[in-house]
Amino acid sequence: MCLLLYAVISVAAACVFLYALLPLLSRHRGMLALLWHDRICAYTRDWLTGCTQPQRMLTYVLENAVAGDPQGTVDAIDTFCKTAEWAMNVGDEKGLILDRVVLETNPRTALELGTYCGYSTVRIARLLRPGARLFTVEFNADTAKAAEKIIAHAGVGDRVQLLVGSSWDLIPELRERFGVEKLDFVFLDHWKESYTRDTKLLEDCGLLREGSVLLADNVTCPGAPDYLDYVRHHSRYRSEYYPSHLEYTQAEDGLEKSVYIG
């Protein structure tokens, strides 16, 4: 009985220790940050609340951002991620890099791979010129429902077309179904192991023109080594790395900007 009690106390103490230590370590260590925030905390909250992070984020945005104000929506999500719960969107720090690249590119037709809750979608759409279009692809249908409502609340729905499904299936349909001839800007922020595959698919489908800009998030954490090797060593691209930090932490991360030369 004493041994059993000792074991229970030891396990409980270890759990308390990890619960206190992991957040401190995760501030500067990227993979620990992902483990803590994106797995342990997110799954725990889902279980405790009975709803998903996209649903919780949507509720927060509807309660705290003025309808029709895209910057207010971006700010509300940043506040949610800093004070309530971490989320794996591009974030405020890397978001400034995204803003700069979008403004420099001034795209007429843009593609985002990985909508998630619509944070970067709103961030990109608010900077688009009149008449420009942003296609954003989200694999998870339930997540897409929350994202669609956030995008509409931000007032940028007229510039955004949300496509639900696999990027592998939807990229080849962009020209025939949606009238896309060429893409001026592509933001890659979905499954990191799909970056290279989908970039090659964009090439094969003839959707990139000379000067098309690809911007890839999280190339350091969790990392996209195959993609970096491809765009940095292929004669079709001229690439530049923008060092930064993993969203809402001080862990090292960055974005890779690649210009398609053809």
Give the helix/strand layout.
Layout: H1 2-26, H2 30-49, H3 53-64, H4 70-83, H5 91-105, E1 109-113, H6 119-125, E2 133-138, H7 141-154, E3 160-164, H8 167-170, H9 174-178, E4 183-188, H10 195-204, E5 208-216, H11 219-223, H12 225-233, E6 237-245, E7 252-260
Parallel strand pairs: 1-2, 1-4, 2-3, 4-5
Antiparallel strand pairs: 5-7, 6-7
Helix pairs in contact: 1-2, 3-4, 3-7, 4-6, 4-7, 5-6
Quick recap:
It is built from twelve helices and seven strands.
Give structural notes.
- The structure is a single chain.
- With 262 residues, the protein is α/β, with parallel strands linked by helices.
- The chain is 53% helix and 19% strand.
- It contains twelve helices and seven strands.
- A seven-stranded mixed beta sheet has the order 3-2-1-4-5-7-6, with helices on both faces.
- Strand 4, helix 10 and strand 5 (208-216) form a beta-alpha-beta unit.
- Helix 3 packs across helix 4 and helix 3 (53-64) runs parallel beside helix 7.
- It is globular, with a radius of gyration of 20 Å.
- The termini are far apart.
- Mean pLDDT is 90; it is low at 2-28.
Q: Widest sheet: strand order? A: 3-2-1-4-5-7-6
The sequence of SSEs as H and E is HHHHHEHEHEHHEHEHHEE
What spatial form do the alpha-carbon principal axes imply?
Answer: globular
Mean pLDDT: 90
Head-to-tail CA distance between termini: 73 Å
Residue ranges: pLDDT <50 for 5 or more in a row? Answer: 2-28
Alpha plus pi helix count: 12
Helix content: 40-55%
Largest sheet: 7 strands, mixed
**Rg on CA atoms, Å:** 20 Å
Structural class based on helices, strands and sheet pairing: alpha/beta
Count of extended strands = 7
Strand content: 15-25%
